[in-house]
Design a protein that fits this description.
Elements lengths: L25 H13 L2 H34 L4 H45 L3 H7 L1 H17 L1 H24 L1 H7 L2 H39 L1 H6 L3 H53 L5 H42 L9 H6 L5 E10 L11 E8 L4 E6 L5 H8 L7 E8 L5 E3 L5 H7 E4 L8 E2 H6 L7 H10 L3 H6 L7 E2 L8 H15 L3 E5 L7 H15 L3 E5 L3 H5 L3 E6 L2 E6 L1 H7 L2 H10 L4 H7 L1
Parallel strand pairs: 3-10, 3-11, 6-9, 9-10
Antiparallel strand pairs: 1-2, 1-4, 4-5, 7-8, 11-12
The protein binds adenosine-5'-triphosphate.
Length: about 625
């Protein structure tokens, strides 16, 4: 088998690909696990109590059997001992069943809590962190890692019982004879040696296994999302090879982990042979020296035998525990992502809610962390007074989408400020000083791709304003001209949409996005290419829908169709990351610059569609 390809750039920690989400250290994960368990005090107390009782029973039975041997050898009556044995056996069986149930119940609650926190934190993740990590990394944590951790609940129950049983067995050996206890301890050097060999290898191997699995998910997701591009450019063989290479790396990582585990399992048998031999030899010697009874040695041998199971569970489950720990570390890494600091209440109180203008000063942005890289935006200053609209036009790659995303508060710029200005005499408040929720209340954004969530049209639309009535929803749809086709559907707002349900054209999906913004009713809207997706027939309708949304609001509109730009109060032409021209449609035509040339090309009837695509 060929060695797995290296996963990381030189110098990056093992199993943490560059840009991947953080992985929490084991100690931090253990603390989070314990705190989560303590949040369920009733279940935690029940699991611990039944586990201790069942382990006590497991240890008591061999001790009673040993005593039975001595009673028989002495020729005394067995009846009281048999009664005791029966009672302990029944209670042990009962508490063992209860212990398993209680531990699983606690484990399920802990896993559910953790899953909710991971999903919640993932949904509130900074888009830049998500972009750097890749949606595959997030997806594999929220699905595979949560699954792996949840399926370890049964294992956790067994491990808990085994730990307590081993501890109580040590007490049992000591109650028989300290030398028998010492002989039993002969197993430990062998176990410790094999664990010291195994553990340092297992942790990184399983972390690597989880990380390559995440990379494989990433490649799969990219292939699925870009399926049409893959098809159009006949990239299927290349993409197929990428998927195969990712799968080969995953198989390689799993095999490496399995080989190490197989050698570790063999060492366990050796430890048991050593332990039992030491115990029996010591027992013979002690009986011959009249130091202990035959019954005591029998009890010790039975106790040791009963320990095979719990010790085996503990040692063999190091394998699964290592996997579950690797998954847990990745989950806690997501949970621990730093939260946005809460905004200053005084700033929040000042943030305007109506008649809001937008002021942009010295806006600079570069996508690369390298400060010497060329910026995409270079010192943009703009004012959009309350209730007016500004169209942004320019060639492809000029920086329009970047400007719109920053003004919409999707991500912060590397330099400069975007402020909301309450008119007529409110103080400006920077978007950077507000939390995401407060920004969204004031600034609504529509990006080029409008997502339709699985569910009914009603669910999809009321996401923007939970509690909105059907009448509110129909009214919002009427504003953007979408009520006719929705009302014509047999189930109206109850129609199910999304993958596998009623398929919506991109134009209709964008109309829904526009209606959602009408429902939310923010004073500022940023529309990035809201009409670009539709074909020329649908584009005109969407243009009208967008114009209806913009009316009365402060708007920044990235316009690919110049008719949409002409309908705005002012137009900014972006070129090379700067504002090249700014004015009304009439002013810019009169000045005969870039905009006038674009308009000239665009408005020639025969070339209109091509020109639209080129702006
Ligand atoms: N996430 C990103 N990471 C790195 N570079 C980016 C990213 N997004 C955009 N760019 C680059 O920034 C520049 C400006 O892109 P932007 O999308 O803002 O331009 P645009 O004017 O909206 O173009 P278009 O009309 O084609 O959408 C381009 O060179 C683009 O390649």
């Amino acid at each position: 088998m060929s060695a797995p390809a290296p996963l990381t750039a030189p110098g990056t920690p093992t199993g943490t690909p560059t840009g991947a989400l953080p992985v929490a250290p084991g100690r931090r994960s253990a603390a989070v696990l314990w705190r989560t368990a303590r949040a369920h005090p009733g279940e935690l107390a029940a699991a611990l109590t039944t586990t201790v009782l069942s382990s006590a029973g497991t240890v008591a039975l061999p001790l009673l059997l040993g005593r039975a041997v001595d009673v028989v050898r002495a020729g005394d009556g067995l009846t009281p001992l048999l009664v005791q044995l029966s009672v302990v056996a029944v209670l042990t069986a009962l508490t063992t069943a209860l212990a398993r149930r209680d531990a699983e119940r606690l484990g399920a609650s802990v896993a559910a809590d953790l899953r909710e926190r991971v999903v919640d934190r993932s949904l509130r993740m900074d888009p830049r962190v998500l972009e750097r990590a890749g949606s595959g990394d997030v997806a594999s944590r929220v699905t595979e890692d949560v699954e792996l951790f949840t399926s370890s609940v049964q294992l956790a129950a067994n491990v808990l019982t085994s730990v307590v049983t081993v501890a109580l067995s040590a007490v049992g050996f000591l109650s028989l004879d300290w030398r028998l206890a010492l002989a039993f301890c002969a197993v430990f050097p062998v176990h410790v040696a094999s664990l010291r060999w195994y553990l340092p290898k297992a942790g990184p191997l399983y972390a690597t296994e989880r990380a390559v699995a995440a990379q494989r998910s990433q490649v799969f997701l990219q292939s699925l999302h870009g399926a049409s591009t893959v098809h159009a450019y006949r990239m299927a063989p290349l993409q197929g090879e990428r998927v195969r290479a990712a799968s080969r790396r995953t198989v390689g990582a799993s095999r490496a982990a399995l080989r190490v585990f197989a050698r570790f399992s063999m060492s366990m048998n050796a430890a048991e042979a050593v332990g039992l031999s030491a115990l029996l030899a010591t027992g013979f010697w002690l009986v011959r020296a009249d130091a202990v009874t035959v019954g005591a040695v029998t009890a010790a041998a039975l106790l040791f035998h009963r320990l095979f199971g719990p010790l085996g569970v503990l040692l063999l489950s190091f394998d699964e525990v290592s996997r579950a720990a690797a998954a847990l570390n990745r989950l806690v890494g997501v949970v621990d992502l730093p939260e946005d600091p809460a905004p200053d209440p005084a700033v929040l109180a000042r943030a305007p809610r109506s008649r809001v203008g937008v002021r942009v000063r010295g806006l600079t942005h570069r996508y690369s962390d390298d400060p010497t890289a060329a910026p995409v935006l270079r010192g943009i200053d703009l004012d959009v007074p309350a209730g007016t609209s500004l169209a942004v036009v320019g060639e492809s790659g000029a920086g329009k989408t970047t400007l719109a995303a920053i003004v919409g508060g999707v991500f912060p710029p590397t330099g400069g400020t975007v402020e909301l200005v309450g008119e007529p005499d409110g103080e400006p408040v920077a978007l950077a000083d507000l939390d995401a929720g407060s920004v969204r209340e004031r600034v609504g954004v529509i990006a080029q791709e409008s997502h339709v969530f699985t569910g009914t049209l009603r669910d999809d639309l009321t996401l923007a304003r939970p509690g909105a009535t059907d009448e509110d929803v129909h009214a919002a749809l009427r504003v953007v001209g979408g009520d006719d086709w929705v009302s014509a559907l047999p189930d109206g707002l109850g129609t199910r949409v999304g993958p596998g349900e009623l398929a919506l054209s991109p134009a209709r999906a964008q109309q829904l996005a526009l209606a959602r913004l009408v429902l939310r009713d923010p004073p500022v809207v940023v529309l990035d290419e809201a009409t670009a997706e539709a074909g020329s027939a649908g584009a005109r309708d969407l243009e009208l829908s967008a114009a209806a949304l913009v009316r009365g609001r402060t708007a920044l509109v990235v316009a690919h169709r110049l008719s949409q730009a002409a309908a705005c109060d002012r137009i900014a032409v972006v070129a090379g990351g700067r504002i090249a021209e700014l004015g009304t449609h009439a002013e810019l035509l009169r000045s005969g610059g870039r905009y006038a040339r674009l308009w000239d090309t665009w408005s020639r009837p025969a070339q209109a569609p091509q020109a639209a695509a080129d702006t």
